[in-house]
Amino acid sequence: MDAAEGLKKIAWAEAHMPLLARIRDRFAVGRPLGGHRVGVALHLEAKTAALIRTLREGGAELFVVGSNPLSTQDDVAGALDGMEGIQVRARRGESLEAHHANVDWLLDNSLTLIVEDGGDVSVRLVERGSHTAPELIGICEETTTGVERLQELEADGLLRVPAFAVNQARMKHLIDNRYGTGQSTWGAIMGATNLLVAGKNVLIVGYGWCGRGLALRAAGLGARVFVCESDPVKAVEAAMEGYRVVTLVEGMRLADFVVTATGRPGVVGEEALAAAKDGAVLANAGHFGYEYDNAALAAMASGPTEVRAGVEAYALPGERSVYLLARGELVNLAWGDGHPVEIMDISFALQAMAAEYLVVHQQELPMGVHPVPDALDDAAARLVLEHLRSE
Ligand SMILES: NC(=O)c1ccc[n+]([C@@H]2O[C@H](COP(=O)([O-])OP(=O)(O)OC[C@H]3O[C@@H](n4cnc5c(N)ncnc54)[C@H](O)[C@@H]3O)[C@@H](O)[C@H]2O)c1
Largest Cα–Cα distance of the chain, in whole Å? Predict the structure, then answer.
């Protein structure tokens, strides 16, 4: 682990995160998180380190794990682990058992707040029966999939604290999911494959917030864009944007690049995989690495053979091959550095403000999943506008 390299990455990110810098300065004076023990489970790279250091500046003690073993950057984890008040347990490529053990370690620390991406910690909290721990005051959740898991816990009566659905903030899903995923996913696909996108057929599976950004940027790169979307209204929206709406099998027959962003398991199953065009590149931008049915792919194809770093070839019957990127894990984080820095500045500013809000308003907030208050959304938007005007 090269912690010095990690420190350089963190310094670069912080230099381009003006919103978090403003919050850090304010936190250093008011110390609003003083005495709090915050458990963090996020994609562990440099921008996340900037959020963690902001929470630390607010007076919190930090316990940190990754939210996906494939997105952890060891140099950043090593650099953070050396800092006062911050303990890290995460390693790139660690087994799922090791990841779960780290989540258990996190929960052994009498946490007062949880800041996470994907809901693993909240789900484990319930499995361990510690969701009624009196010291825990709340949860801030970053992504669509995590919010859905929290809503399931709430429906089952198992969510006993207030939880902010940071993903539902307008400044999060409108900006991060759309423009962040759009840019960083194409950056990762192009970096991983070194292939041209212009003039090619691209199939986007799932035209939600991420899918809209993925389609927009594919079109900007000169691709012909096809969309497969199960919600008919969103499918009409895609058509009105000028994309061709297709069934999954139709799209698979045509696509040179397929990108999934549904958040649902096994969406691209056996029939769709069997229809894939020779040479198709398969990538996923959804939270979990389960949108392609990997078991079906393994059963119907020979391989995988690694043909480039992070690119695995599967040979299908009929002398066709498909290339699966990052084993179907979310490609922009497993292969690349994740969202652009300025995007995560906004999302993490919301996380920091939501954590502060939970602490300040802990007596007033009922248990359950809550939207981030509009005032925080507006504050983040005003900070962005101020910064844009000053450039
Ligand atoms: N890669 C990243 O950096 C990143 C960033 C933000 C969110 N995410 C993740 O991406 C996923 C999507 O997030 P979102 O905010 O776009 O969610 P969303 O709910 O806005 O969009 C998902 C879309 O998929 C559609 N869908 C579901 N099943 C389908 C199927 N079988 N066929 C076709 N369409 C289907 C839904 O109708 C919906 O429109 C989530 O897992 C989220 O956590 C990833």
Answer: 66
